[in-house]
Amino acid sequence: MKLINIAQAGPMASAPPASSYLNGAIEFVVVLVGGLAVLGILISGAMYMMSGGDSTRVQSAKKALTASIIGLVVALFSLIIVKTVIGFI
User: Fold this and answer.
1) Number of domains into which the chain is organized
2) Distance between CA atoms of residues 8 and 25, nearest Å
3) Does residue 8 lie within any of the structural domains?
């Protein structure tokens, strides 16, 4: 009598691992956040050019640029961290 190998039985054996779904979701979020950060950089550049030398508007544009760059860096580092963690799983 032949015993069935549990790892090869049923539809669960052919299902992709959960980490592939997590990886896809994280990549989607990083692309979305990265695109928004680039858009924020472009908008803050336009704000800076249209400030007309007004110090409060220049400061506002610089703050927006700083926040956009920080958002882009956080998105990239989160992708690196997730890829590293998934690589160990």
Assistant:
1) 1
2) 28
3) no
